[in-house]
Write a structure and sequence with these properties.
Elements (H helix, E strand, L loop, with lengths): L2 E2 L9 H6 L10 H18 L4 E6 L2 H10 L7 E6 L2 H12 L3 E6 L8 H10 L5 E5 L1 E2 L4 E2 L2 H11 L3 E5 L11 H4 L3 E5 L10 E6 L1 H9 L9 H9 L9 H15 L5 H20 L16 E5 L6 H12 L1 E2 L1 E2 L8 E5 L6 H17 L9
Parallel strand pairs: 1-12, 3-4, 3-5, 5-8, 8-9
Antiparallel strand pairs: 2-10, 6-7, 9-10, 11-14, 13-14
Bound molecules: 4'-deoxy-4'-aminopyridoxal-5'-phosphate.
């Protein structure tokens, strides 16, 4: 099997694969209801929330779209904080549904500046909602969500919609303690599952906003999700197989009593990855290591080498699947995912392949230790 080092889809442990092989069941039946309730309760623990949590059969942007269309109306003023490709996508979704979006962008490699968010909210009191990406997968940067929440919620009391697609499950998100109104994630990231299942947590404040939200919606209407969940169902036919996997994966993750051990492991493996890359003479995209992501590391492709030559060699000669750059970083960076199901040996494999491959491509790494 290839060493899949993408920041999603991520590898799935063998016993989760096995769990997904169960036969189909009635999604309006008792067995499904029990599984849905069990998954929902486990997710509440992982999201650190007492808010409603729903499962949506879609990938991440479906839940991002649900966050927007269920809380906003066309013409509503929105501040979209973006530090890369996925932040831009959240903004595009809001624009597609007619929100009046102010974009607040940072240079690649930087985290969002809480001071700039404060200034933007001060400058326009009519802003109703703020969109933020917790972990920007295109640059390998994790925003200080707690600090940002302190401003968005604590100082200005705005509706706060958070893309935690590539953080939750591997990086802590304290939904209730930080006052996050809508938080979304997706199964193929930190949750050790295949793609197909998105999750969304919805606060009482977000439900309040939902009462007057006029953006069009049907498949992602969360009022439908809420009334179905009360019956132990989803409004539409769900991805039952991925739910089998999620049920099992959540039990594995929560087995230790809480998620802290999982977060600690990701802190360690990320540091290990960064240290290894730097030792090889590579430069990280993250300009300040305090904000370097625990789920994905982005490094600049060395001068004189093309990203495709490097990624092709890793794939063809070492059976390692690393990720290319996205958005404005396309062609300039490569990324190593270390979220969800990852072992130290997987990273060792990447580092030793790079040590071997880079000289063949004309880059001489720093002396390997
Ligand atoms: N947001 C973030 C932060 C992501 O990392 C991704 C996937 N890379 C998405 C949104 C999009 O989700 P999906 O892959 O499920 O389409």
């Amino acid at each position: 099997m290839s060493n899949l080092r993408l920041p999603g889809p991520t590898p799935v442990p063998p016993d989760v694969v096995e769990a997904m092989g169960h036969p189909m069941i009635d999604h309006r039946g008792k067995q499904f209801k029990e599984m849905l309730f069990r998954i929902t309760e486990s997710l509440k623990q992982a999201f650190e929330t007492k808010n409603d949590v729903f499962l949506l059969t879609s990938s991440g942007p479906g839940a991002m779209e649900a966050a927007v269309v269920n809380t906003l109306s066309p013409g509503d003023k929105v501040l979209a904080v973006s530090i890369g490709n996925f932040g831009d996508r959240f903004s595009k979704i809001a624009k597609a549904y007619g929100a009046d979006v102010t974009d607040l962008k940072s240079d690649e490699g930087l985290a969002a500046d809480p001071e700039a968010i404060r200034a933007a909210l001060k400058a326009d009191h009519a802003i109703k909602a703020v969109l933020v990406t917790h972990n920007e997968t295109s640059t390998g940067i994790t925003n200080d969500l707690e600090a940002i929440a302190g401003i968005v919620k604590g100082e200005f009391d705005k509706l706060f919609l958070v893309d935690a697609v590539s953080s939750l499950g591997s990086i802590r998100v304290a939904t209730d303690a930080w006052g996050l109104d809508v938080v979304v994630s997706a199964s193929q990231k930190g949750w050790m599952c295949p793609p197909g299942l998105a999750m969304i947590a919805v606060s009482p404040r977000a439900w309040e906003a939902a009462k007057t939200a006029k953006m069009p919606k049907f498949y992602f209407d969360l009022a439908e999700a809420k009334s179905s969940l009360a019956k132990g169902q989803t409004p539409w036919t769900p991805t039952i197989s991925v739910m089998y996997g999620m049920d099992h994966a959540l039990q594995l993750m929560l087995d230790r009593g809480d998620m802290q051990a999982v977060y600690d492991f990701h802190t360690k493996i990320a540091q290990y990855t960064r240290d290894g890359l730097v030792k090889l003479g590579l430069k990280l995209v993250a300009q300040d290591e305090r904000y370097a992501s625990n789920t994905v590391t982005a490094a600049w492709v060395p001068e004189g080498i093309t990203d495709s030559a490097l990624l092709d060699m890793l794939r063809d000669e070492y059976d390692i699947i690393a990720a290319e750059g996205r958005g404005v970083l396309a062609g300039k960076v490569f990324r190593i995912g270390h979220m969800g199901y990852v072992r130290t040996e997987d990273i060792d494999d990447v580092l030793s392949a790079l040590r071997d491959a880079l000289p063949k491509l004309g880059f001489t790494p720093a002396a390997a230790s």
